[in-house]
Amino acid sequence: RKEVEQDPGPFNVPEGATVAFNCTYSNSASQSFFWYRQDCRKEPKLLMSVYSSGNEDGRFTAQLNRASQYISLLIRDSKLSDSATYLCSSGTASKLTFGTGTRLQVTL
Amino acid sequence: DADVTQTPRNRITKTGKRIMLECSQTKGHDRMYWYRQDPGLGLRLIYYSFDVKDINKGEISDGYSVSRQAQAKFSLSLESAIPNQTALYFCATSDPDRVRNNEQFFGPGTRLTVL
After folding, report:
1. Which terminal Cβ of chain B has fewer Cβ within 10 Å, N or C?
2. How far does B18 lie from chain A, in Å, by closest CA?
3. Which of residues 55-84 of A touch B (CB under 8 A)?
């Protein structure tokens, strides 16, 4: 079993839709959680950290469920520019483990 | 200016050749990492370093070696390249003052093809 698992997608949604991604992690000692965005052939860029209480940044909401060991990302009012691959990651103080990514395609 | 740079950005080489990928950062971070990314396998950690005198193996270190020449420089070497080392390689840094968070910042990547 992979340490961090994501549905690879693709998720094809129309502009304006709400879309949610889940990610599960197996290391119960994980202390930090992130969502990264990666455009084709580019480097991953930090989208947002994920906190126990949940956190929001504009149209993006991230949540952590420690009991079930999953994190989620909700994107509201999807834009064409949101089309990308979204990587979740979890880790300890020393290193992060990344999921393989979920591909999102937003269409007109 | 990019905070984390990688050279070369693209490289095509032949089986058996020695290759060095270089990473430099101006973020002042002590921690540096090398990953490779393959389709369907995601990012996998090759080596990481917490300071100039510290080198640690990641999950896929076989066939690779690293050198931390200075706080700002971390290079990855393939002593004798083989075709299954064809991949996209990323360097990343993180800030020890934010250990609990450990968010990492990535360089632009090096696309390596081994023929």
Report:
1. N
2. 24
3. none
